Amino acid sequence: MPSDVFHVRLNALELQAERIMDPSLKTRPVAIISSPHPNGTIVSLSPEAEDEGLFPGMKVSVVRKMSHGVQLLPYNRSLYARINRYVYQTVSMFTPIVEPEGFDGFYLDMKGMQAIRGHVQNTGLSILQRIQEQTSLAGIVGISVNKLVSRIVTSVVPDTIHEIQGGEEAQFLSPLNPPVLPTVKEKPVRRLLRFLWIGQVSHIQSMAGQPDEFRTFFGIYAIQLSRESRGQDSSIVKPPQLRDHILEQTVLPEDTNDENVLHAVVKDLAEQVAFKLRKRRQVANKVRLEIHYTDGHQR
Questions:
Q1: What does the alpha-carbon distance between residue 133 and residue 99 come to, in Å, rounded to a whole number?
Q2: What share of the chain is helix, strand, coil (3-state, %, to 5)?
Q3: What does the pLDDT read at residue 51?
Q4: Which of 98, 130, 115, 137 is nearest to 241 (CA)?
């Protein structure tokens, strides 16, 4: 089976963008924060800032006590969105089927392109070179037979270009930590894996070999978790105009548990989604709310 799904990831896009805008930041410790308010948190940071003991999710008040040499920059959503659109146009030169993923990721369906562009790894290198030439941004490419594995490649493999051949997906995934699998983000699954001391995807693969017991443990999540553990994914790469979901997101300017504030934020996001649905003349079949906490957890 040919490897024809690419995942392009622009690691630390926010940091790269800020350093392009201000070259003097290139060797300095930098932290991008959700808000200058004491309850604001670090969203992204440079290796130099990490060396000073800082980490994503750390409160601004703590950062200011720990380090006076770190440059704190506000989260510039409009800048990152503009860069995302520009990179989208750049990678679209290689295939008409491109699906953006957040600000820093892109899925490319390269099916049928090998005859035109040659070996897939050379094509991946050409894509990164074009992005570098056009935007000065550095990235990495994961290549496999599907979106799931290609995305996991760019999240765990530091190589600039890395390809997983068809049939090697389960072997590639087996030594990895379970959170690389999307279904493990579901709270019941995450809790059960912790309770069972499951530390590698290989353990999930072994359990899935006993379908009845596996279903007893994981219930409605069993089938999808079993498929993911073996690197199986049937989802297709969907350009923005064909995507079957609408995504709206925001970063709170400061940490809060105030229900009134949170309800207002969710209401605003819901109204934005509703407006887009009305514009499309569509009705939502499913609504999902995802929350990312300052300590890195999400639900």
A1: 21
A2: 45, 15, 40
A3: 93
A4: 98
